[in-house]
Amino acid sequence: MATPLIRIPILQIEDFLVASIQVALHDRSAVQFRDDLLQRIHETKAKGLIIDLTAVDIVDSFIGRLIGDVAEMAALMGTRVVVSGLQPAVAITLTELGLELPGIITALNLEKGISILRRLTRQEEEDQG
Amino acid sequence: MSERTLLIRSDLDIVSARVEGRDLAKALGFGTIDQARIATAISELTRNIVLYAGEGTVTLRAIERGNKRGIEVVCEDHGPGIEDVDLVMRDGYSTSRGLGMGLPGAKRLMDEFEIQSQVGKGTRVTARKWLR
Amino acid sequence: MKPTLAALLAENRPRVVQELAKKMGERAGPTYAALSPEELLPRMEAAFEAMYQAVDQGKPEVLNDFVSASMRQRMAERYALEEMQTLLSLLRQVVLGLVDSAYGDVPEQRLAASRTVEELSHGALQQAFQVYLEAYEEQVELQRRTLSELSTPVIKVYENVLVLPLVGAIDTERARRIMEELLTGITRHQAELVIIDITGVPVVDTAVANHLIQTIKAARLLGARSILVGISGEVAQALVHLQIDLSGVVTRSNLQAGIEYALEQMGLEIVPRSLPTGVPEEAVEEAGR
Questions:
Q1: Nearest to A92 among C179, C191, C224 (CB)
Q2: Domain limits for position C161
Q3: Higher pLDDT, B108 or C203
Q4: Does residue C165 share a domain with residue C127?
Q5: What is the predicted ipTM?
Q6: Is B33 in Cβ contact with A92 (below 8 Å)?
């Protein structure tokens, strides 16, 4: 039986990729999302990726770990991952689950996320230049 | 409706279960944070059913004890069962890189938590949360 | 054969109600004294009706329910309990007077009727006390909760900077509330830096420390960095003893140091500035100017 797979659109803004999750993701769609993200990072060599969770009410250990995995793999490819828009209820449940998302930069919203990535990228260029 | 039983067979059912759980929690008067806790716990528990037993049920019901009101979540399956419940409930067991069991997490999110399991027969997890 | 108590009451309704109204007007407290006859009479009728029904149906609950409802309605008034006591007392007095004159020459019936009235009055009075006590306790609980909410204020001291001053003991319930308040505050004020001041927290044990760490972790998920200030010498010792890992948490000695650090993080600093009179004042400026 074919399960409808939800594909989350991944947009490119400047040197960054932005993916905003607007719907509830079941496990298979989440895995597809992860694969799509890594594929796009590889293709675009993006400096940063923002995963926006403003519209997400519930984040359990599966999605939490998945995001952690994405960050780890992205880092290996030279891409910084920012998670933006976590709702207070979600932040609390993740903390209580024991998931910390280490190595991930967090931002209150998409706008701040982008400005953080810009700042970090600029700094990096200055350091290298 | 104060009691619902859902069949859990796939990852789609996990999503349905937690949405139902959140809706029931909201209807019972739980605040946003507790709604998230309850929904997340249901997500963890029903995922266990899919991962380890393949199929099972989750029953969500409104409960009362004295003048306390709350929600009860019962997950049942006829899967392989858990050999060492204590081991599984110990934190750190589920933080392996692969798919962990999520049981300790679910326990932390709820107020009451009981596991009954028999190897070869199945598992039953009951979790409750009370309105403050 | 003399009429039953219920029949007696029914027959004498208008007279009893009038007498009750008159006496209440004279004796009861300010609330009743301020009532006009049009307002007073219906209340007396309701009280009488409740007693009548209780007698007629043989159900004390009818009178008790009236007392509960009436008191809950008037709980906001200061003399609610006193005035209910007076009402019940007068009702008893007037009805007993009626019983005496009606059954005067039939001691058995008089005794039985009197007993009924006494029992009803006594039960109703107990009910009044019960309701008062419950309402009082509800009030206290409400106040306690309001107070504890007030005691976890989140204050915006500067753009992007919040201060969370904690005072008093912190149990699990309060810790939970604090975490929720803080996260809501971070969202509302778009804060990126939070200064958690524990100067006023008397005991920091493993439980409190863990609550703090969880709060800091949750705040981080919202993109806010935390600065912990106000750790006294004793608390520092206790934390080391308990092997609480606060690495990764920025700490400063006091609120001022915390705020300076926060501003620093945003590329700002506080520098002296002279007023026209030459009196130096401090201002916040871009660092390095």
A1: C179
A2: 155-286
A3: B108
A4: no
A5: 0.90
A6: yes
